[in-house]
Automatic annotation (TrEMBL):
It comes from the Bacteria. This is Putative competence-damage inducible protein. CDD domains: cinA. Gene3D superfamilies: 3.30.70.2860, CinA-like (3.90.950.20), MoaB/Mog-like domain (3.40.980.10). Belongs to the CinA family. It comes from Alicyclobacillus hesperidum. InterPro entries: CinA, CinA-like_C, CinA_C, CinA_KH, Competence-induced_CinA, MoaB/Mog-like_dom_sf, MoaB/Mog_dom. Signal peptide: none annotated. The gene is cinA.
Length: 420
C-alpha cells in the first residue's frame, strides 16, 4: 500500500453502471477536483466502475495502491445493486454493523416528511466496522469515512444535492486537518486563436519546464489554451507567481491571445461590440445558424447582435441578401465572391455596423476536387471594407461547422480592433 506523506494524492471513483453506459455525465469528477484544488489538495486519478461488487472491490484495490485518499460517490442507496460499502468492507476485510445513530437519522428523515421508513432503508444504516458515518441532511444515504492501510476512504452518495454539502462539511475539513495548511491553487487560462498548439508549444519550452508556476497547453476546437497554475500560502501570493509568466507569454503571442479565464470567442465579440456601441448581423450557409446560436448564448447579446439569416438555398442568398445571380452562376455558392456579398448584404439588410458571411462544404459529402470538403469562405464587413478568408478545415461535419464559426469570430475581432 502507499506510504503516507504530507502530500494529498486523491483518487475519485464514481460507482454506477449508468455512468459507464453514458446515460448520465460524471459531473462529480469535475466538481470534487475543483473543490479540493481550492484547498491545495490534489486529485491524481479519476475512475468509474459499474454496479458489480467484485469490480468495485478491484477498483478500491487499485486505488489503494497508488493514492492515499479515495473518494467514492454513488452506490449507497437501499436497493440490491447499491454495493459500494459492501465492496469496501470486503476489500478491507471488515464487517458491516448497524449504526443506531445513523438509523435514527434516517428514521427522522422520513418522519419529517410524515412517511414511515421502508424496511429496505435499514440497509443504509449499515456501516463498516471501525469507520465513522457522515450525516446526510438532504437524503437517506449516510456517508462513511474510514482510515485503513494508509488510505483515507470516503463514501458519499451520488445525488449532487446530497454529495456536495457533505464533501464541503465532512471531507475537506478532515483532509485539510490531516494534510496541513490550505495552500491556495490559482489558475489563469489564456485563450489563443489563429495559431496552432504545436507552434505555441515550441516557443514556450522554457516556461513549461517550471514547477511553480506550471504552464500547460490544451487543444480546443479551432483554438487553443494555455493554463498557468501556481500554488502558494495565499491566493494573492499565487497570483503574483503567475503575473510575470503571463506577461512573458503575452509579449510572445499578443496578436493571437483573444481572452482569458472564462472568455470565449463569442463572448469577447459581444463584449467588444457592446463596449463600442456597435452592432452585428450574420449570414450563414454551411453553419446553418450555429454562429447566431453561439452569439445569442451570451447574456446581453441583444445589445449588439441584431439578427441573422440562414441562407442555405441560392434563392435565399439572392432574395434576402442581394447576392448577385451572376456571382452564384459564375463563382458558385461556395466562393470568395459569394461570401463577400453575403456579409455585405446582411449588414445592409439588417442595418448593422458589421456583417459576417459564411459559406462552405461541411461534408461528409458534396466535395469535389476543385472544392473539397472542409473548404469554407468567411467574410467580415463594415462600412469601410470587406475581408474574405479561405479556410481548408478538417474534421467531422460538426467540427467543420464549429471551427468555421470560431474563425468568423476571430476574423471579426481583428476587423473591429483595426477600425476602432
Amino acid at each position: 500500500m502507499v506510504d503516507m506523506s504530507n502530500d494529498c494524492r486523491a483518487e475519485l471513483l464514481a460507482v454506477g453502471t449508468e455512468i459507464l453506459l453514458g446515460q448520465i455525465h460524471n459531473a462529480h469528477a469535475q466538481f470534487i477536483s475543483q473543490e479540493l484544488a481550492k484547498h491545495g489538495l490534489y486529485v491524481y486519478h479519476h475512475g468509474a466502475v459499474g454496479d458489480n461488487e467484485a469490480r468495485i472491490v478491484n477498483a478500491f484495490a487499485t486505488a489503494a495502491q497508488r493514492s492515499n485518499v479515495v473518494i467514492a460517490t454513488g452506490g449507497l442507496g437501499p436497493t440490491g445493486d447499491d454495493l459500494t460499502k459492501e465492496a469496501l468492507a470486503r476489500f478491507l476485510e471488515r464487517k458491516l454493523v448497524m449504526s443506531e445513530e445513523a438509523l435514527a437519522d434516517i428514521v427522522q428523515y422520513f418522519a419529517r416528511r410524515q412517511r414511515p421508513m421502508p424496511e429496505q432503508n435499514r440497509k443504509q444504516a449499515l456501516c463498516i466496522e471501525g469507520g465513522q458515518w457522515l450525516p446526510n441532511p438532504n437524503g437517506t444515504a449516510p456517508g462513511q469515512y474510514i482510515f485503513d492501510r494508509g488510505v483515507h476512504f470516503f463514501l458519499l452518495p451520488g445525488p449532487p444535492l446530497e454529495m456536495r454539502p457533505m464533501l464541503r462539511d465532512h471531507v475537506i475539513p478532515r483532509l485539510v486537518e490531516r494534510f496541513g495548511g490550505e495552500r491556495k491553487l490559482v489558475s489563469r487560462m489564456l485563450h489563443f486563436c489563429g495559431i496552432g498548439e504545436s507552434d505555441v508549444d515550441a516557443q514556450i519550452a522554457d516556461l513549461t519546464s517550471g514547477d511553480n508556476p506550471t504552464v500547460a497547453p490544451y487543444a480546443g476546437e479551432g483554438e487553443m489554451l494555455l493554463r498557468i497554475t501556481a500554488t502558494a500560502d495565499t491566493e494573492e501570493a499565487a497570483r503574483k507567481l503567475i503575473e510575470p509568466v503571463e506577461a512573458e507569454i503575452r509579449s510572445r503571442f499578443q496578436p493571437f491571445i483573444y481572452g482569458e479565464d472564462d472568455d470565449s470567442l463569442p463572448s469577447v465579440v459581444i463584449g467588444r461590440l457592446r463596449k463600442q456601441g456597435r452592432t452585428l448581423a450574420v449570414a450563414e450557409s454551411c453553419t446553418g445558424g450555429m454562429l447566431a446560436e453561439l452569439l445569442t448564448d451570451i447574456p446581453g447579446s441583444s445589445e449588439a447582435f441584431v439578427g441573422g439569416v440562414v441562407a442555405y438555398a441560392n434563392q435565399v442568398k439572392e432574395r434576402l441578401l442581394g447576392v448577385d445571380a451572376n456571382t452564384l452562376a459564375q463563382d458558385g455558392a461556395v466562393s470568395e465572391a459569394t461570401a463577400k456579398e453575403m456579409a455585405e448584404g446582411v449588414r445592409r439588410a439588417l442595418g448593422a455596423d458589421f456583417g459576417v458571411g459564411i459559406t462552405g462544404i461541411a461534408g461528409p459529402g458534396g466535395g469535389t476536387e476543385a472544392k473539397p470538403v472542409g473548404l469554407v469562405y468567411v467574410a467580415v464587413a463594415d462600412n469601410r471594407e470587406t475581408r474574405v478568408y479561405r479556410l481548408q478545415l478538417r474534421g467531422s461535419r460538426a467540427q467543420i461547422r464549429l471551427r468555421s464559426c470560431k474563425q468568423a469570430c476571430w476574423r471579426l475581432l481583428q476587423l473591429i480592433d483595426d477600425h476602432m
